[in-house]
Write a sequence for this structure.
């Protein structure tokens, strides 16, 4: 039976550890502060499944951890990996994947699993909604809302915001994408036509990981608008321009970990078990 | 032209003051700390419309204020009121209303205005949703949700939660109420049948200002459930029982003031102008 | 045990008869053509519960029947009624109710039962939607829709049309009614302001039993619009004016009987049993 | 300026002809009965854009026409085509496309245009809803509904049915597809697990063009259920088995042409203009 070592991360790791334990798995969790008695080497000798955090790393040196931890260097981790291990994590750097491949170590990136990605859009959407309600002094109800992009996150977010009675417009690059958005009940606009229209929105959600809402567009946004950016850092909004013009704007990252760590952990748990069942 | 004096309250008073000013009205705002130069007597001689907070008072002695203020005693206020004044506020005590009536002072309670009450259900619903997303480590999506009561707040909240893909059940006392809930697309249950079913809900929102979710029912609630009580204090949930059983539960009051002070101020502004136009 | 006699009506009577039989009740159905062997006198001696149709009568002489029937004169029916009978029907004429009261005959009008009325709004709404889809050569999707009135039928219809992605505006007389409509996510307009706006709607549903869409308003309606009137006959639309101007318009009555006779029969069955259980 | 010849088809051709005329184009419509004065040869010499129907043909000999027409043989059409012509139609046979390619005749199949396909899902969904309301004696409201497949048509239909308060389950082959369906708020089931569950649905909509609901599954369907098949002929339901078991079932094809010919014509018009603008 598999033995799991969970390293670093945020509260999702806690919930994941709890779920694994509840399901009868031997589990070691090392995610909160430095434990002088903890030995990564020993833990990795005991456990065969290494569950790294989402994201794998932020500084490219150590595994990411919400709490300060000094003993999670990536090099150290790699040095203890053997072909008996299977590694999981989110946004695993290319060189780590390459290392695993060469050394015949199983390596799964959560972000490459379509199931996980799709399911995570829900927690992201709910988190973005909570952020918008809190950040803005107005109501979402019957306000005008722009969503840039129409990928998975945007679709789920758009449906939920429609369910809250916002009038949604989807801005996209491609006609087919916009035809689909229209069939799902949304107004649509080409990204290239945004300049003319962006001033009329009360809420703007960006989901495109590229500078879409640049300084020029920001200068046309209503002073009463609220901008939430849920695209990967550094996001797609010129936040400096927003600050200068007094527009409420926030880069909201890692929403599933903040607003729905338990659901996120369940999703990871199911994905891990599916991978392991297909591996062995 | 009317001159407005705003006393105490929360950030709704700030936004209300700003809206009045933007619309060209002379406005005095006294809501933030003690201003040694402020004289209630003088301000009330200058202004004819006195906008008191929501709620009017919490301690029955002074006007309510989010910031500590020592110069807003109700007795003091009354002593300066003349028949040239018109008084507004939320949940104005009966004796103040009676005093106004006897002295021919115009007196309007926001809570008696059906328009205001209905419009406020929106901010309350959005606030309750934000609280639920934040309080619970899971997702609202496709979870099982119970709403006790089917008055105005419950109706708006239920529609919005349905828009977020929760499976909603309405618990009420009357068959007609439940027939209406069913026609609006919700499952229904008699309050008296809750014991058998309450264990299967992930989220419970109480809107009834009476002890509906008592200790007995709390003992049957799932340990993973989240309870949000938006009925007037002291609410309708046995919070002590929740604490003992480790169930997440929160009395969430004054949600419009917290989550949508600007929209709330606009609603008050419109109601005030309607009243004044019908008065004179 | 009760014995049921069903007279006249439409296919709801057939389904009602079937449901009663399935539940073990003795049932006589007389609703389809003239049966030379049928004797109303004998049937009413055998059965104690007389289930008349919805509506009770159209010509004020005989019970309503979808099929031509010559033996259902109201006078004849009354002459056989005794205090051992209990009478049910929809829109029972006042003089029949008065006759029943004086002779101590139980008499229940479905239309006076709030439960039945509320539940029937669903079949009415679905029927109106089917009529609109069929009558118009365009799509409902993302079209502009006006609903006049905001009573029970209008509320259910509005929610369902919103669910089909129409942009709904509610026209009503009272501000409170419109505040409620707004809180439920609809645009609103005062009936008295309709002249300015009525030209922009693709679909118009009238639910008010009074001449609301008169010749003047019809002249302002778009030539491409579709009007469905679900208010009681003669409805609230000037159909002659519509005809002259080539505007698609239809008075759609009795929708539950046409589109959902089985569900309607179930609703009646439950209402009948509730009444009988409370009577004896 | 282009001159348009419209041949055969259903009422979409009429609306398309009207829209072209309204937009100032020279248009010849030949779609209703035999006109002894009509000469295909002459018409094709006058017009350069030939708008064939959807579908192009049903009998593989003549163009499809809702009205009996004897002069629309495909061979005849081809014999008059020159490289100056551009041909449009729906489901154009491969050999016609090949003929066009070889002879350098522009040839566009509406069914290959993603825009058109996506937009048509709306009329298909609305038509399927109207069929279900009419076919079943019950209400859609709060009934249990199964949709097989989760392609474009199924997505649009599922969202609309959810908007009408049905409890939707999506049956599909692939886990990712079902994860997406779940994120959009639907229950899900693997097609391979249908046997256990199919008995509990009140409405079944098939969108998969393959025998999905075979005799075995039909035998497990509730006798009160209603089945609507909107997959291309011969559909994916064993209709003979349905007939034998007295289950309401209908193959509903060409719904856009029946329920929304005007909207469908507008979609075609826009697609034609886009193609022509990109061609020349």
């Amino acid at each position: 039976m598999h033995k799991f070592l969970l390293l670093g991360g945020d509260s999702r790791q806690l919930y994941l550890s709890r779920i694994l334990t509840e399901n009868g798995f031997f589990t070691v969790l090392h995610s909160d502060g430095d434990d002088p008695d903890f030995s990564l080497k020993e833990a990795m000798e005991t456990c065969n499944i290494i569950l790294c955090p989402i994201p794998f790393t932020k500084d490219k040196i150590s595994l990411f951890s919400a709490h300060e931890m000094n003993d999670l260097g990536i090099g150290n981790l790699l040095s203890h990996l053997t072909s008996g291990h299977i590694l999981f994590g989110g946004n695993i750097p290319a060189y780590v994947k390459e290392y695993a491949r060469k050394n015949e170590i199983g390596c799964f990136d959560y972000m490459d699993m379509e199931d996980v990605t799709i399911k995570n859009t829900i927690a992201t959407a709910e988190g973005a909604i909570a952020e918008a309600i809190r950040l803005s002094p107005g109501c979402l109800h019957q306000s005008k809302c722009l969503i840039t992009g129409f990928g998975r996150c945007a679709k789920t977010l758009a449906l939920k915001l429609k369910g809250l009675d916002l009038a949604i417009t989807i801005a996209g690059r491609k006609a087919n994408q916009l035809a689909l958005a229209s069939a799902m009940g949304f107004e649509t606009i080409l990204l290239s036509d945004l300049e003319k229209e962006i001033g009329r929105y009360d809420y703007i959600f960006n989901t495109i990981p590229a500078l879409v809402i640049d300084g020029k567009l920001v200068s046309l946004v209503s002073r009463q608008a609220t901008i939430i950016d849920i695209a990967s850092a550094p996001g797609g909004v010129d936040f400096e321009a927003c600050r200068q013009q007094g527009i409420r704007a926030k880069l909201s990252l890692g929403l599933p970990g903040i607003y729905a760590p338990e659901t996120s952990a369940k999703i990871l748990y199911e994905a891990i078990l599916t991978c392991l069942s297909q591996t062995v």
About this structure: The domain at 119-257 of chain B is CATH 3.40.50.720 (Rossmann fold). The longest helix of chain B spans residues 114-135. Residues 90 and 111 of chain B are 6 Å apart (CA to CA).
